[in-house]
């Protein structure tokens, strides 16, 4: 599989978008991984994490981000061009390959959407975070089924996705440092604030259901508007880092010794009478 952080120019045209069956396969796969590691997140969290990687200033390789998402966080030492070793949560190489193939397709899908010039959220080409209205799903259950879930903390609409996005931001903070240009820095802050807002609980009065058209109200209108703002924020972040470009690593030159200091060559002479002459 190609490294998702360095796709070919026509990558998005070569891979179809994930279908509902593909998403089901990912969720089933993650459920199986969770039997071997309790820390494996839900797919919605993974989708937010993946989206942040697509928007990141630096192209972060799979050897860095997969251990952060599915393992102990320690980057894998893999030479360029070499395949990843089998990661601990996966049952075998075939299962890992299946996950990576689906992950690649979702990466391509997101990248293509964010690089497409759309004017409204109604455009069918617009980026769509893979989120679920869990409260709507619970509200649609029978009274007995809801009683079994009593006391459990049910996340708000898009909250898990936003947490996944910010998890990536927080783990690579150097790639999200504000640029020196004040206007661009404000642009960055406002975009991230829109996503952070979704990490908070929806405390508004439920008025719509994002789970089913005729479902019980489970999401406030304010939440729906925040979700829309977060989608545009993702577009902004993608374009911001593409316009600013990657960080330039500069080597700091060691300070030159004073003329009366001992010479750095170790001769025992003063600098002014040795290398500084």
Question: What does this entry look like structurally?
Answer:
- This is Zinc chelation protein SecC.
- Pfam families: SEC-C, UPF0149.
- It comes from Simplicispira metamorpha.
- The structure is a single chain.
- The protein is an all-alpha fold and about 280 residues long.
- The chain has one domain.
- About 45% of the residues lie in helices and about 0% in strands.
- It has ten helices and two strands.
- It has helices at about 10-15, 20-35, 45-55, 60-70, 95-115, 135-140, 145-150, 160-170, 180-200, 220-245; strands at about 205-210, 220.
- A two-stranded antiparallel sheet has the order 1-2.
- The protein is globular, with a radius of gyration of 24 Å.
C-alpha Rg (nearest Å): 24 Å
Question: What is the CA-CA span between the terminal residues?
Answer: 58 Å
What is the N-to-C order of secondary-structure elements (H for helix, E for strand)?
A: HHHHHHHHHEEH
The low-confidence runs, each spanning 5 or more residues with pLDDT under 50, are 1-12, 249-254
Secondary structure class reads mainly alpha
The global form is globular
**What strand order characterises the main sheet?**
1-2
Strand content: under 5%
InterPro entries: SEC_C_motif (IPR004027), YgfB-like (IPR011978), YgfB-like_sf (IPR036255)
Protein name: Zinc chelation protein SecC
Pfam family, one: SEC-C
Organism: Simplicispira metamorpha
């Amino acid at each position: 599989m190609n490294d998702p952080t360095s796709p070919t120019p026509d990558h998005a045209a070569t891979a179809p978008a994930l279908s509902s069956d593909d998403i089901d396969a990912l969720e089933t796969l993650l459920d199986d991984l969770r039997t071997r590691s309790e820390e494996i997140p839900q797919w919605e969290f993974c989708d937010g994490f993946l989206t942040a990687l697509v928007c990141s200033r630096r192209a972060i390789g799979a050897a860095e981000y997969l251990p952060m998402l599915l393992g102990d966080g320690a980057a894998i030492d893999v030479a360029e061009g070499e395949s990843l070793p089998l990661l601990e949560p996966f049952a075998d190489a075939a299962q890992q390959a299946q996950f990576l193939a689906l992950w690649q397709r979702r990466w391509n899908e997101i990248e293509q959407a964010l690089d497409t010039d759309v004017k409204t959220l109604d455009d069918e080409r617009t980026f769509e975070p893979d989120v679920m209205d869990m409260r709507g799903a619970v509200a649609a259950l029978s009274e007995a089924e809801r009683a079994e879930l009593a006391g459990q903390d049910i996340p708000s609409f898009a909250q898990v996705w936003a947490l996944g996005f910010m998890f990536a931001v927080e783990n690579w903070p150097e790639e999200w440092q504000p640029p020196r240009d004040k206007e661009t820095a404000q642009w960055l802050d406002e975009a991230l604030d829109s996503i952070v807002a979704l990490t908070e609980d929806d405390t508004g009065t439920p008025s719509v259901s994002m789970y089913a058209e005729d479902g019980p109200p489970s999401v406030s209108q304010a939440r729906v508007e925040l979700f829309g703002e977060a989608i545009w924020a993702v577009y902004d972040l993608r374009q911001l880092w593409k316009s600013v470009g990657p960080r330039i690593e500069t080597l700091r030159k060691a300070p030159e010794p004073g003329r009366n200091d001992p010479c750095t060559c170790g001769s025992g002479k003063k600098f002014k009478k040795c290398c500084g002459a």
